[in-house]
Amino acid sequence: MSDIPKDDFPTSVELVPATDDDIPEVVRLTNLAYRGSDGDSAEGWSTREKYLTGDRTTEKLLRNDLSVSPHASLLIWRLEGESGIVGSVWLEPQGDGNWYLGSLAVDPARQNGGLGKKLLSLAEDWVRERGGRHINITVINVRETLIGWYERRGYYDMGEREPFPYGDDRFGVPQRDDLCFVKLQKKLV
């Protein structure tokens, strides 16, 4: 757990674009945040290992996603005075002021200290500064705690569902046959 008190973060902290050299660390952080322990660290409250197994992403997949989505931004977050990435997020314009937010990840060893809430707020500010009016996200339907976390931050269920891509292990190997994505949205203006 972080020594930084909840909601007491350095004010000069900002999101910056990930460099090619950051990709391996982003992949490691994302897989830890989405799948839990690598054997040495505690599992975070937001891990999905009960629903999906395997890696959430790989360097090859992430580099491919970046190459086919030239307008997307993979942003990283470092705390002032500390080494290493404590968070990352994918932001992509969808047109008409809509943006997609995906792969929000905070180091599981530092969860429950307000870092996720702060990272989400920084991502929303980043989108706002670029003229974004809405942020869209998708969350796996069985992640009720995570859906509730987003709803407490102003996101609402759009009533739309997207099918889970069974047979495409890009998101991991499903452990259930009832998965789908819940579409959530937040109005920024």
Automatic annotation (TrEMBL):
Q: In this protein, which residues make up the domain named N-acetyltransferase?
A: 13-189
Source species, domain of life: Bacteria
Which CDD domains does the UniProt entry name for this protein?
NAT_SF
Q: Which UniProt keywords apply?
A: Acyltransferase, Transferase
UniProt keyword Transferase, yes or no: yes
Full protein name: Ribosomal protein S18 acetylase RimI-like enzyme
What is the species of this protein?
Paraburkholderia tropica
